[in-house]
Amino acid sequence: MTRNPDTQLPMDVLRKFRMIFGSVRQHFREVEQSCGVSGSQLWILQEVASMPGLGVSELAARLAIHQSTCSQLVEKLVARGLLLKRRSAQDQRRVDLSLSAEAEGILGRAAGPAAGLLPVALMALSADTLAVLNDSLARVIEHLPSRDERWADRPLADL
Question: Running DSSP on this structure, what letter comes out for residue 150?
Answer without folding.
Answer: G
